[in-house]
Design a protein that fits this description.
about 280 residues; alpha/beta; Rossmann fold; Pantoate--beta-alanine Ligase, Chain: A,domain 2; 2 domains; six-stranded parallel beta sheet; three-stranded antiparallel beta sheet; 9 helices; globular; binds pantoate
Length: about 280
C-alpha cells in the first residue's frame, strides 16, 4: 500500500496510471470502523484489477467554531493497518490542511438541500464538505466514489454537486452499518463514555419504533414520531424530522419516499442516524 502525503505526489501517481485503469475511491476523515471497511471492500470489488484509493483527511472547513474538530478521533497507524487489510492500494493522507487549501477563497456550495436537517444546525458544514470532496474528486478522478448512507443529507448534496459540476465517475451510496445492539457506526462513537453509549441506543430503538408504526400503516408524521423527547431521553435532541427523501424538506404526511432523520447529543457527542420510509 502506497501512502501519499501531498497533492503533488497524488497527481504524479494518478498521471502515471495506464489509461483505462479503474479507480474506486473512498473519502474519509479516518478513525476507520466497519462502516468504512464495508466501503473499502465494495471499492475493492468494483475496482477489479484497478486501484482502490482511500483519503484520510479531517477537513477543518466542515467544522463550526464550537464543534469537535480538536476532539475528532485520529489513529493513523490503526487506519493504515485496516486499509491495507481491506485491499487498499493508495492512501492519500495530506500532512497539513494547506495541501488541500492553498487558499481559503474558493468554495463549492449546493443551495436548497443544505437548508434542512444538519445544514440548519451546522451552518457552513456542507460548504466545507462539498469543497473538499470536489477537490478530492478532481485530484483522484475516480470511476466510482463510495459514501455511507448514515450521512444521508451529505450523500444527497454530493450527488447534486457531482451532477451539476460534471465531476468524474459515479457516486454510490452504501447501507448504514450497525453494532449488533443497533448503534450506527461512527468515528465519533469513540468519544462516547460507556454510559452515554448505552443511552445512545435510544436512537436506533426510536427509529425501529418509527419503522414499525410505518409498517402498520401510519402515514401521519406526528403520530409516527410520537413523543420524541421521551423516546430519546436523556439525549439532547438537535432535530428529529421526517423529510421528503429527494428534496429533504419536511413533510406532515408520507405519500412519497421519506426519510426519518435524527441528530442528538449523548454525553456531549453529536450522533446522527436515519431510516428510509418507502410507502
Ligand atoms: O463523511 C465524511 O467522512 C466526510 O464528510 C467526507 C465526505 C470525507 C468529507 O470530509
Amino acid at each position: 500500500m502506497l501512502a501519499l502525503r501531498s497533492t503533488a505526489d497524488l497527481l504524479t501517481w494518478r498521471t502515471s496510471l495506464a489509461a483505462g485503469t479503474t479507480i474506486a475511491f473512498v473519502p474519509t476523515m479516518g478513525y476507520l470502523h466497519d462502516g468504512h471497511l464495508s466501503l473499502l471492500r465494495e471499492a475493492r470489488a468494483r475496482a477489479g484489477a484497478g486501484k482502490v484509493v482511500l483519503s484520510i483527511f479531517v477537513n477543518p472547513t466542515q467544522f463550526g467554531p464550537n464543534e469537535d474538530l480538536d476532539r475528532y478521533p485520529r489513529d493513523e497507524a490503526g487506519d493504515f493497518a485496516k486499509a491495507q487489510a481491506s485491499g487498499t492500494d493508495v492512501v492519500f493522507c495530506p500532512t497539513t490542511p494547506e495541501e488541500l487549501y492553498p487558499s481559503r477563497s474558493t468554495w463549492v456550495t449546493v443551495d436548497d438541500l443544505d437548508q434542512h436537517l444538519c445544514g440548519r444546525s451546522r451552518p457552513g458544514h456542507f460548504r466545507g464538505v462539498c469543497t473538499v470532496v470536489c477537490k478530492l474528486l478532481m485530484l483522484v478522478r475516480p470511476d466510482v466514489s463510495l459514501f455511507g448512507q448514515k450521512d444521508f443529507q451529505q450523500l444527497a448534496i454530493l450527488r447534486h454537486m457531482h451532477a451539476d459540476l460534471f465531476l468524474p465517475g459515479e457516486i454510490v451510496g452504501m447501507p448504514i452499518v450497525r453494532e449488533p445492539d443497533g448503534l450506527a457506526l461512527s468515528s465519533r462513537n469513540a468519544n462516547l463514555s460507556a454510559a452515554a453509549r448505552q443511552q445512545a441506543l435510544a436512537i436506533s430503538s426510536f427509529l425501529a419504533q418509527v419503522r414499525e408504526r410505518f409498517s402498520a400503516g401510519v402515514r401521519d408524521v406526528a403520530t409516527l414520531l410520537g413523543d420524541t423527547a421521551s423516546a430519546l431521553a436523556p439525549g439532547k435532541i438537535d432535530y428529529v424530522e421526517v423529510v421528503d427523501a429527494l428534496r429533504l424538506a419536511p413533510v406532515n404526511l408520507i405519500e412519497r419516499p421519506a426519510l426519518c432523520a435524527v441528530a442528538a447529543f449523548f454525553g456531549g457527542v453529536r450522533l446522527i442516524d436515519n431510516t428510509l420510509l418507502t410507502p
